[in-house]
Amino acid sequence: MIRVTRSAIIDAPIERVWEVLRDFNSHSAWHPAVGESQIENGEPSDQVGCVRNFFLRDGNHIREQLLSLSDRDFISTYCILDATLPMRHYVATAQLKRVTDGDRTFWHWQSTFDVPLGREREFEELVGKGVYEGGFEGLRAYLRRGGRTAPAAAGGTGAALAAQAVVASAFGGPEVLRLDAVKAAAPGPGEVRIRQSAVGVNYIDVYVRKGIYRMIEPPAAIGMEAAGTVIDVGPGVAHLLPGDRVAYACPPPGAYATVRTLAAAQVVPLPDDISDETAAALMLKGMTAEYLLHRTFRVRAGTRVLVHAAAGGVGLLLCQWAKALGALVIGTVSSEEKARLARANGCDYPIVATGYTFAREVRDLTGGRGAEVIYDGLGREAAAENLEALAMTGHWVSYGQASGAHEQLPDLGAKSGTLSRPVLFHFTEDRAVLNEMAQRTFAALRAGTIKVEVRHRYPLASAAESHRDLEARRTTGSIVLFP
Question: Which residues does the chain have with pLDDT short of 70?
Answer without folding.
Answer: 148-158, 403
